[in-house]
Amino acid sequence: MTTHLKKQEMPNDYFQFKQFKINQARSGMKVTTEACLFGALIEGSKSQSILDIGSGTGLLGLMLAQRSTAKVSCVEIERSASLDMEQNIKQSPWSNRIKGYHEDIQDFLVRRSGIYDTIVSNPPFYQGHLPAEHPQRRQALHQSSLTYKILVNAVKAALSPSGMFWVIYPFYESRVFHSYAKELGVYRRSYINIYKKDGQKNIFRQISCFDKKSEKCSVKEISIRNNKGDYSQDFIKLVKPYYFNL
Question: Over the stretch 228-241, which tens digit does the pLDDT of each residue have?
Answer without folding.
Answer: 999 999 999 999 99
